[in-house]
Amino acid sequence: MSDVSASAAASVPAAKGMSQHDDAAVSTPSPGQPDEGQGKPRSLGKDAWLDLRTNPIFLVSATLIVILVVMAAFPGLFTSQTPEAADLSKSRVGPSSKAWFGYDLQGGDVYTLTIYGARASIIVGVLATTFTLLVGTLAGIVAGYTGGWVDSVVSRITDVFFAIPLLLGAILIVFSFPTQPGTPSIVIILRVVAAVAVLGWTFVARIMRSSVIQVKQADYVQAARALGAGPIRIVLKHILPNAMAPVIVYSTIALGGYIAVEATLSFLGLGLTPPVVSWGVAISEAATYLRVSPHMLLFPSLFLSITVLAFIMLGDAVRDALDPKLR
Amino acid sequence: MTLIDKLPAGGPIPGSAPLLEVEDLHVEFRTREGVAHAVNGVTYSLHEGETLAVLGESGSGKSVTAQAIMGILDTPPGYVTKGEVRFRGEDLLQMPEDKRRTFRGRRLAMIFQDALSSLNPVFSVGWQIAEMFRVHEGMNKKQALAKAVELMDRVRIPAAKQRVGDYPHQFSGGMRQRIMIAMAIALDPDVLIADEPTTALDVTVQAQVMLLLKELQQESNMGLILITHDLGVVADVADEIAVMYAGRIVERAGVMSAYGNPAHPYTEGLIASIPRVDMKGQELYAIKGIPPNLMHIPAGCPFNPRCRYAQDVCRVDDPPLYDVDSGHASACHFWKEVRDGAIG
Lengths: 327, 344
Description:
The structure holds 2 protein chains of 2 kinds. By secondary structure, chain A is mainly alpha-helical.
């Protein structure tokens, strides 16, 4: 019963490391074969992971992101001071061996404020991405899978939101819903998340829609229908896992972008406002004193740039890993 | 009514009710450019244990007929406009989708030409076979996976236990088609439709896959509809043949009479175009012209522009299926001439 054939191997799409088990070797059942036991089968995800593990861009960006996330979750690990501590006598004092990043206008330690600022930025980035991913994916699947007039309606709604530039729209939304003094930090943060997410989902929806339309026509979707799978199962098990890759890549890159939008809004005095500590707020405050005390601006912007860069690099690495053609 | 019913004993049990009857099926595709009449009044039936080969070139409507039977036609643009598809007497086309879905996989199953693209690349083959039991029988993961290994054994995949967790791209073409077959036969369907199951495979593997299908059919006595354009495959395994052209059946016959005495010029042409060893060095025969545009099927007999027997009547009158012999019918005004000419 050996289905051995030289041409069978040729019909396997040539991709590096794809056919780990050679058919010729496996069709003669020999349980003693070394790679049978440990040679775990590889899914696309596992393949991508193997690819990522050796990619320096991924390693650098992932390390940075891990550090930033830890910083956001446990700022106490990095600094013993609190962000509220301020000593007016040290207002705008430059970096020294005691305070590496110097002091800000209120005499607060810039290093401590920068560490604590990571939390707001990461929360905004992650929440905005989660929200855009959920709404955009749902809209994209509904439009792409259903087709017909449903697609037209959903796509036109997407276009309406798409036509509004993200930053301009976010400014408008935040401006229309001003916060009162005494509003809790989390509400201030959520307001910015909402402003970004309400406009950001359209990109995800468009990518998802085209991806779903492409996957929908795949033979395995037809085959699943022929063998009795219902529409929900087809969407969840056959279409979604195969259509997610471009959206994941986009969202990773967009996460950095959302953090930048938050900083921009805060810089304009519209986004996060004190008492929330954020890089955008710090940059906004420091801008006035750029020429006399550049250190106040330098450190928060440096962290912001590195964070945005880390997510964009991560997105790039993930895209390369998920796209077999680039291998 | 159907000719195949009158057949003497062969594959099917004489006198038994047919498993599947397709009657006067019409399918059209409504596109921007116009309406393409893909299937125009196809009638055939299938008995338990019988193998019906549906022959025809690309665009003859053989796959569309199968999709309409399974109920997996893409609507829009494809619509069944007329006809009945009866499974054990019950019309599938009148059934609500919910009920019809329970028939797919359990009563009627289908396998496709390209097994690699018919398998979901992100799940292991074991998971995909097990899925059949989880969807239809509500089994838990472990039971279903054990059944999957059993099935992989049944379709003769070597080292099934070791390979159950492998992904489709790790298998050869023939093995993938076996996995597809395993999924299709998982729930012991009564009817299996194989849409060009061996076209994407190389010749030695083709024979193995056909043999496997034949063996599985004998084990479970299922009816097999084999859609193909490979006459070589047909001769070995089919009991009955239906030749399709421009969305209709132009000749129906037992496999012996179709090869021995084709009574339709198209069938005759198909048989003449099989390359033969004893004709080495001579020009290969090809049916002249191209298949008709399904939006503008010629008046009269659709084959008339390519037919060497064509007379004036062929350009006006669409021939019905004439009885040539018991169990043999041809949609040609000149079936006598064709049949006798083919012998001589």
